[in-house]
Amino acid sequence: MIGRKGTRIAVAAFFGSRSVAGLNTVFVGPPRSVLNQDYFGGVSTKSGAIGFPYIEGQKDRRIAFTGGPSPNGLQAKLVIYEVAFSIRVTSYQAKGEAALDDHDAIIDAFTTRLRSDRTLGGVMWQAGEGEMNMSEDIHIVTGPGPKTRKTDGPILIWSMVRFIAIEAI
Fold first, then answer.
1. Fewer Cβ close by (within 10 Å): the C or N end of the chain?
2. In the chain, which residue ranges form alpha helices assigned H by DSSP?
3. What are 65-100's pLDDT values in tens digits?
4. Bridge partners, residue 25, by sequence
């Protein structure tokens, strides 16, 4: 069993190593402090992001393929993790609209990556596919909008990408 910590590590690894354009640093959990270089990762661009996962909720569900106890191992316990991945974008674009465009491109790249492999590289039984038929797969919440800079500071936009990651034990 990989558990909560292992799930956070698996999620961070899957979205790390610059696998998502613009998401330049991925932490395993909320960082105590973030440097400007973490957002931009040495890349010359006007916008960049950091991200980190945490587990908002967890539940277990038994699944039996034979209708009862099975000596053949045809049943499993599914550990369902409700993952929230925080994406924090900072931008030095001149206009909030341009910063929001950059943010949306990062979110689109993130969801494309999540949809690309439902096992997160073979670590999870399933992720980003919802909990059951017709349930929500991916839910994205973005803050109230770009906080426009007063003079020369950055524009900040934060989003939360919520999805289910399931471990079979």
1. N
2. 3-15, 36-40, 96-116
3. 655 554 555 667 899 999 999 999 999 998 889 999
4. 50
Rounded to the nearest integer, the mean pLDDT of the chain is 90
- Banded model confidence at residue 38, pLDDT cuts 50, 70, 90: very high
Looking at per-residue confidence, does 39 or 41 come out higher?
A: 39
The pTM is what? Answer: 0.89
138-142 and 155-168 strand pairing:
antiparallel
State pLDDT tens for residues 121-142. 999 999 999 887 778 899 999 9
Which residues are registered as beta bridge partners of 26?
A: 51
What is the crossing angle of helices 3-15 and 96-116, to 10°? 120
Phi/psi for 136 (5° steps) reads -65, 130
CATH code, domain with 128: 3.30.2000
Q: Contacts for 31-36 with beta carbons within 8 Å, 24 or more apart?
A: 34/88, 36/90
Beta strand 47-64 with 23-26: parallel, antiparallel or unpaired?
parallel
**Domain carrying residue 113:** 3-168
